[in-house]
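Suppose you are handed only these lines of text.
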Amino acid sequence: MNTIDAITSRRSVRKFKDKKIPNEILEDILKSAMFAPSAYNEQPWQFIVIDEKKLLDEIVNIHPHAGMCRTAALAILVCADLSKEKTKDMWAFDCAAATQNIMLAAHENHIGSVWVGIYFRKDYMQAFKKLLNLPKDFIPISLVPLGYSDEEIKKVERFKKDRIHYNSF
Ligand SMILES: Cc1cc2nc3c(=O)[nH]c(=O)nc-3n(C[C@H](O)[C@H](O)[C@H](O)COP(=O)(O)O)c2cc1C
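From them, the structure of the protein bound to flavin mononucleotide can be written out as follows.
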């Protein structure tokens, strides 16, 4: 799969087969996350791999739009680690780039995923910190449930020429 094919054919997956993700693929996915660009190359992220069924089921109770965790093989919680950041206010962007890399690397390996937003919702952030016993410097940004897709993935067209502007609007 080339990069543009991967980007344009990826779709959110919210229903997964009961099948484990091999460790070497998971490591590839996490490695891809760590190759994301970050401001001043600070790489201010931490990744919590959640593969215990009990925890995945618990997430459904703390996030109303994370029902897909019920069938996910695992989920990766992408956290900003403020202790690793010297510049201010860039970590959310860095973690967003890492999140996108996770999804594209998963897709390359025929694994479905979906971005579940956490950042900005103080109640969700607090609930994840408590559930996973995270240090105070960690800020949960996004959750990516992963698994082999049990959905039909439809092709879409999103290219809009009228959103492109040269030099001025
Ligand atoms: C910041 C962000 C937060 C999102 N939060 C959720 C969520 O909580 N639950 C969910 O099912 N999908 C969530 N999504 C996925 C979007 O709904 C999805 O990406 C969008 O509908 C486009 O579909 P596609 O991913 O198939 O291209 C989120 C996506 C982003 C970028």
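What can we learn from it? The first helix runs from residue 3 to 9. The chain has a mean pLDDT of 96.
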